[in-house]
Amino acid sequence: MILISRSEGSLTNPRVPMDDDDDVFExxxxxxxxxxxxxxxxxxxxxxxxxxxxxxFDLDLKTFCGACSLVSILFGCLGIAFKFAxxxxxxxxxxxxxxxxxYGTLNNIIDFDIQNDSVKTPGSLTRNLRRVRQGLDLIxxxxxxxxxxxxxxxxxxxxxxxxxxxxxYHTWAVRTAVYAGMYALPTRDQLILKxxxxxxxxxxxxxxxxxxxxxxxxxIDKLYxxxxxxxxx
Length: 233
Description:
By secondary structure, the protein is mostly helical. It has helices at 35-53, 61-69, 72-76, 83-103, 106-115, 125-147, 155-165, 172-181, 188-194, 199-225; strands spanning 4-6, 31-33.
C-alpha cells in the first residue's frame, strides 16, 4: 500500500513504512494519506489561497510545483494508455520546479517568455506550464467521468476525457498510441485498489480534487488570457 505522511505545518513528506515496533515513536501529529487524498489536500490548499488572495495574486512557483508533483502518481495508476502523458507531465513539472528559484512566481515565467518572444517555443517555461495545466485538467475530467458512470471498464471515461482536454494539442502519432492503450486501462475496481481507496473514499477524494483543481486551472488560464495569449495550443 502506498501511503504519504503529512505532518502538521508541512505540505508533503514522503514516509518510509515502519515496523510495528517503531509505531510508538511516530509523531502524534502525523497522519497517513493515500496518494489521492494527498493530492486533494494540496489542491485545496492552493484553491483556498487563490480564493483568499484573488485571481490577481502572484502564485509562488515552488508552491504550485509542490502540489503538481503529487499528481504524477495518479497518471501512473492509469497504466500504459497515459504513459506519454505521465512522462510529459513529470518532465514539465520538473523543469518548472528547477526554474522556481530563479523566477519565483508563475507570472514571472510568462513575462520572461513574452519579453523573449518564446511563449510557444518548445521547452519554454510558459509552454511547460500550459502542458502541466492540461495534465491537471485531464485528471479532473477522468475523475468526473469516473463518478458519472458505474461502468466496470474505464475506456469510455478516459477516452472522453482525453479527447476533450489533451487530444487537440497532441500529434496524430501520440493520439493513436493513447487510444490504442485504452484497452490496457485498469478496471474500475483495479483503479480503486491502485489508489488505496474504497468505493466510498474514492468518490469523496475525487470530488475534493475536482472542486479544488478548477480554481487553479482557471487561475492559470487567466495568466494567459489577461496577456492576450490564446488557449488553443
